[in-house]
Amino acid sequence: MFKQRFNYYFDLVEQYLAHLPFEQSLICQSMNYSLTAGGKRVRPVLALACVELVGGQPDVFVREAAALELIHTYSLIHDDLPAMDDDDFRRGKPSNHIEFGEATALLAGDALLTYSFELMAQPSPVPPERQLRVIRETAKAAGWQGMVEGQVLDTLGNGQNNTLAEIGSIHCKKTGSLLVASARLGAIFGGGTEEEIDRISQYASCLGLAFQIKDDILDVKGEKEITGKPNGSDLKLQKPTYISILGLAEANNHLQMTVSSAKECLEYFGNKAEFLSSLADYIAERKC
Q1: Which CATH number goes with the domain that contains 72?
Q2: For 12-46, how does the pLDDT look when each residue is reduced to its tens digit (9 = 90+)?
């Protein structure tokens, strides 16, 4: 049942992304190269699932959910740049800057970010104040108070001995902020109450932490053929990770505790939250 529902949300997003009106210009080729390079589409899937959880119709908000994937893709393009993590591969393909050059990759990321908000600002079936709330919250999550700040702290933290609390704070911004924004987007557009939005936000915060812990684990023991990038990238950059602080076994334990915390946040919704509960397991068990 989980796979069937996941594929339903996933296919809605893929179909929308496949029909974006990109031109044949170099910048559009670069944007589309990374946007269609594969991926789990976790953020838009999460958004659509949260729309449905609070009683909305997911197929009505595919454009807004897909916009989240544009933001995520921009962050990956920039993350791979030589000035950041200097990764040559992403999802088994040459990184955007390897394929198109650093300048074009940088601008493609900028273009995807701005295009995402163009999509979110188009006429919507919800009241304007609800749409503006989502746009404002998403911008905050993606910007200097969220994902960008997390990336800065993560980059500047190379070679430093961070504590577990500091690592958690960094990744709550770098990875968690956009996942929380995705869940809130769905809950707000779907017409959720403030109590429902708050519960969903708590769940997504735990989900973001679990996602990052799993990323750290995959960097150490993931299979290159599946992850699409070589192991040991974090070690090469001397990045502080859950593995470097806790060790592999304890990091796995921390992952399971975080997934359990995410599920506890969903108890308020009862059986209606079965998909989101299974999504937390999916995040913890993924191979890439």
Answers
A1: 1.10.600.10
A2: 999 999 999 999 999 999 999 999 999 999 999 99
DSSP string, the chain: -HHHHHHHHHHHHHHHHHT----SSHHHHHHHHHHTS----HHHHHHHHHHHHTT--GGGGHHHHHHHHHHHHHHHHHHHSTTTT--SEETTEE-HHHHH-HHHHHHHHHHHHHHHHHHHTS--SS-HHHHHHHHHHHHHHHSTTTHHHHHHHHHHTTT----HHHHHHHHIIIIIHHHHHHHHHHHHHTT--HHHHHHHHHHHHHHHHHHHHHHHHHHHH--HHHHSS-TTHHHHTT---HHHHH-HHHHHHHHHHHHHHHHHHTGGGGGGGHHHHHHHHHHHH---
Per-residue pLDDT tens digits for 227-251: 666 677 777 777 788 998 999 999 9
CA distance 61 to 184: 13
Task: For residues 270 and 274, give the distance between their C-alpha atoms in angstroms, rounded to a whole number.
Answer: 8
Q: Let me know: does 34 contact 170? Beta carbons within 8 Å.
A: no
Domain count for the chain: 1
The domain of 207 spans 2-285
Residue at token pair 């109590």: 195
pTM of the model: 0.95
Determine the Cα angle at 84 with ends 168 and 81, to 5°: 135
Residue 89 forms beta bridges with which residues? 94
Q: Which amino acid is at 240?
A: P
